[in-house]
Write a structure and sequence with these properties.
Number of domains: 4
CATH topology of the largest domain: Deoxyribonuclease I, Chain A
Helix content: 40-55%
Low-confidence stretches: 1-6, 16-23
Radius of gyration: 29 Å
Strand order of the largest sheet: 1-5-2
Structural class: mainly alpha
CATH class of the largest domain: Alpha Beta
Largest sheet: 3 strands, antiparallel
Number of helices: 10
Number of strands: 9
CATH architecture of the largest domain: 4-Layer Sandwich
Order of helices and strands: HEHEEEEHEEHHHHHEEHH
């Protein structure tokens, strides 16, 4: 249905005629690079196609998400314009927030982000980045703070040792984010990070000083970032494929494929039902699972004749 309506709008624009969509489904939004100019969605000029879209939106009682932000950077002259339009049913307008991404991400069009306010970011357990640890500082702090005398007067030496060691690790070993903005990708390395950083830097310089030289530099760094990321993906995939054998579980294969694509892993358990009670905290869930496993593995489950034998 979405494709039919979208192509119908495009057809009406090409034929320079108005087409009524009386039976469009509710709770629908349309997004397209329609190349239409109209001040209604932030364009500085207007054309015939923009007038057709304006009449279509007014006739069907639809709403436009656009807030006037630029959505396109012309690769030839470096000018900005708003030609990417997001149209929705009125019932959806207040349920989502619309914004233009601040980075072109290697394209000529800025990505459009539609966010639902009730969608909370999935948290994950932070992991130590051992390859980026400052081991020299870690060793020096351990020698200075982990003294044998300090354990003679404390009530729980093991707890004290773990607390001090964790504190040292927090200061010397970086961690991954608990609330990542983007899914982690196994192929994304320091070279990709540097290339994308250079691309963003050149883009900011062009935005501040839109000269021909800065536009040319931005194109160069954008092409370099594309090439670097493409090569990293190819190398990561070849390395993974070379390690696949006939005994490799299919689950592992598909998990790796999804990671390379940038898809999130399966969500962790958020709640556990215990009879009529609903456990929501991770600690309660872990304790209940441990209690269940212990009960299932208990010797009390053995038959009496088995115990005697």
């Amino acid at each position: 249905m979405f494709d039919n309506i979208f192509h119908l709008i495009q057809l009406s624009i090409k034929q320079n005629s108005k087409t009524s969509l009386i039976n469009y489904p509710h709770h629908l939004y349309l997004y397209g690079r329609l190349q239409c100019h109209n001040p209604l969605w932030g364009s500085k000029t207007h054309n015939a196609k923009g007038k057709i879209i304006e009449d279509f939106v007014s006739q069907e009682g639809l709403c436009i998400f656009n807030d006037g932000s630029n959505t396109y950077l012309h690769p030839g002259n470096g000018s900005y314009s708003s030609i990417d339009i997001t149209i929705c049913d009125p019932s959806l307008l207040l349920d989502y927030s619309w914004r233009v991404h601040d980075d072109l991400c290697g394209s000529d069009h800025f990505p459009i982000v539609l966010e639902h306010p009730f969608n909370s970011a999935q948290q994950r357990v932070p992991r130590w980045k051992l390859d980026k640890a400052d081991w020299s500082l870690f060793e020096n702090l351990c020698r200075a703070e982990l003294q044998s005398k300090m354990f003679e007067t404390v009530q729980d030496p093991i707890l004290t040792f773990n607390t001090v060691l964790t504190s040292i690790a927090d200061r010397t070993i970086p961690k991954t984010s608990a609330n990542p903005k983007h899914p982690s990708k196994p192929w994304f390395d320091d070279a990709c990070d540097q290339a994308i950083g250079d691309r963003k830097k050149s883009e900011r310089r062009f935005n501040q000083q839109p000269t021909t030289k800065n536009l040319s530099n931005f194109r160069i760094f954008r092409a370099k970032a594309r090439r670097t990321c493409r090569q990293a993906r190819r190398t990561s995939w070849k390395k993974f494929v070379s390690g696949i054998t006939s005994r490799t579980p299919m689950t592992k294969v598909w998990n790796m494929v999804n990671k390379i694509k940038g898809k999130n892993s399966k969500a962790t358990v958020k709640h556990l039902k215990d009879g009529n009670n609903l456990l929501t905290s991770e600690k309660d869930i872990a304790n209940k699972l441990g209690e269940t496993f212990a009960k299932s593995s208990s010797c009390n489950n053995y038959r009496e004749d088995f115990k005697k034998s």
